[in-house]
Amino acid sequence: MGEYEVRNNPVSNGAKRAQIADFDAVEIHAGHSYLISQFLSPTTNKRTDEFGGSVENRTRFCRMVIEEVRKQVGPFSPIMLRLSADEMVEGGNTLEDGWRSYMPRAVKERFGKPCISMGNIRDPEVAEKLLADGDADLIGMGRGLIADPEWVNKVATGHECDIRKCISWNIVPLLWIICISLPEHRQHLKTSASSIRT
Ligand SMILES: Cc1cc2nc3c(=O)[nH]c(=O)nc-3n(C[C@H](O)[C@H](O)[C@H](O)COP(=O)(O)O)c2cc1C
What we know:
This protein has about 200 residues and is mainly α. The chain has one domain (about 5-140): Aldolase class I (TIM Barrel, Alpha-Beta Barrel), CATH 3.20.20.70.
């Protein structure tokens, strides 16, 4: 592996395309056991060359991708890096103690970069506390916004009580997502179940 593979990596080329398409920032996915995280993690990276072994070696591919993306998008475009800060598997990359807020805080403290916290953040008070305590600079939400796309507007206008709660109950059949909090999706499930029975 060398400059050629990184330069022709779809990640770096995609960053340029995203910029041309007028996105405000690009995110390099280095988490969730995807390619870059497979290099970062001692559980999957068993290489004996300059891309395996020490932390410096395991992070080499990731750093090359960041450098290439920076070259592609120029000096002024924000680049985000998505990391599994704690892999929660034996032998994987770990951080110690506590619930997830320790992850963005640890990354912030180590690298001095703004951090987004993500995962099971449902309650506006929890989100606010993460920001107020300085554990994160931004909040990311996935399923909570699927359950209630008006989440942000409701919080902004003091209608927190009206938020339709996400209970993290989803099914992902191929190209779309079923969310049990949405009445129309529950109906779809009932209809599918009864058509299977008959
Ligand atoms: C249907 C679905 C698809 C997802 N796809 C991606 C993805 O393509 N890239 C990614 O980084 N995370 C993806 N995630 C993970 C979310 O970004 C997020 O980390 C996860 O859902 C936890 O946050 P939440 O509790 O707010 O949903 C996906 C999650 C769901 C439920």
